[in-house]
Specification:
CATH architecture of the largest domain: 3-Layer(aba) Sandwich
Number of domains: 2
CATH topology of the largest domain: Alpha/beta knot
Shape: elongated
GO biological process, one term: rRNA base methylation
Strand order of the largest sheet: 8-7-6-10-9-11
CATH class of the largest domain: Alpha Beta
Number of helices: 7
CATH superfamily of the largest domain: SPOUT methyltransferase, trefoil knot domain
Strand content: 15-25%
Oligomer: single chain
Order of helices and strands: EEHEEEEHEHEHEHEHEH
Subcellular location: Cytoplasm
InterPro entries: Alpha/beta_knot_MTases, PUA-like_sf, RsmE, RsmE_MTase_dom, RsmE_PUA-like, tRNA_m1G_MTases_N
Radius of gyration: 20 Å
Helix content: 25-40%
GO molecular function, one term: rRNA (uridine-N3-)-methyltransferase activity
Family: Belongs to the RNA methyltransferase RsmE family.
Length: about 250
């Protein structure tokens, strides 16, 4: 049962044992031509919205494969949701962050154009960058066999984050903060939790001030300074334990 594929058109009606479902498009091509899936193999399907199916392959063609459903499960959406606000970073550090966060169960990702971000998404790069992040999140979800596919929001500015801070529980990961994440990790209500991670140079003083005035809270992850690629996943692990996800 090593193979897992996403077919967003799957619905609860497709989950009855004995039901035959079809996988087509890029997922079918990858399954048949790359993973060498053949009739008789067992694999899992998900729709990225909580539904997971397990079954036996009946037919396997590059255009489409069919699967007989053996069993199914539905996982409710997490409450509160945890979203990672990841600042754009040079190299592949931002991509490493969202890949690991997806494997660890993050519920959504927001790319952030921070003041100190060296990498910029401008013009055609905005759509290209968003597509790239969406692909990384999708593949990481498949690798970790996730019932829910995290969404990748449009590129956000600091002012747009300030608007979100008014309606969410926004936690700014800042090495100089006086409060530890473990001191404030326990939820006080059902508001979404937003973990905000700055770029290589950190969150600027002006950004910290603006977001704090909007309702965000500065927190730190101990006495060391983590890279932008590891801070978000580390914080997410703490929240997973505190919220009883793990």
């Amino acid at each position: 049962m090593a193979h897992f594929y996403l077919q967003e058109t799957l619905r609860t009606i497709d989950s009855r044992p004995g039901q035959v479902v079809t996988v087509d498009g890029a997922e079918a091509r990858h399954a048949v031509t790359v993973s060498r899936v053949r009739p008789g193999d067992r694999l899992r399907l998900g729709n990225g919205a909580g539904l997971l199916l397990a079954g036996t392959v009946l037919t396997a063609e590059a255009a489409a494969l069919t699967l007989r459903v053996d069993d199914a499960s539905e996982t409710p959406a997490a409450t509160p949701r945890i979203r990672l606000v990841q600042a754009l970073a040079k190299g592949d550090r931002d991509e490493l962050a969202i890949q690991a966060a997806t494997e660890l169960g993050v519920d959504g990702v927001i790319p952030w154009s921070a003041a100190r971000s060296i990498t910029k998404w401008e013009g055609a790069k905005i759509a290209k960058g968003h597509e790239r992040w969406s692909s990384i999140v999708r593949e990481a979800s498949k690798q970790s066999i996730r019932a829910w596919l995290p969404g990748v929001a449009p590129l956000a500015s600091t002012k747009q984050l300030a608007v979100l801070a008014a309606t969410t529980r926004m936690l700014l990961l800042e090495p100089t903060a006086t409060r530890r994440l473990t001191e404030v990790a326990a939820p006080t209500d059902d508001r979404d939790i937003l973990l905000v991670v700055g770029p290589e140079g950190g969150i600027s003083p002006a950004e910290l001030l603006l977001l704090e005035q909007a309702g965000a809270t500065q927190v730190r992850l101990g006495d060391t300074v983590l890279r932008t690629s590891t801070a978000g996943p580390a914080a997410l692990a703490i929240l997973n334990a505190t919220l009883g996800r793990w």
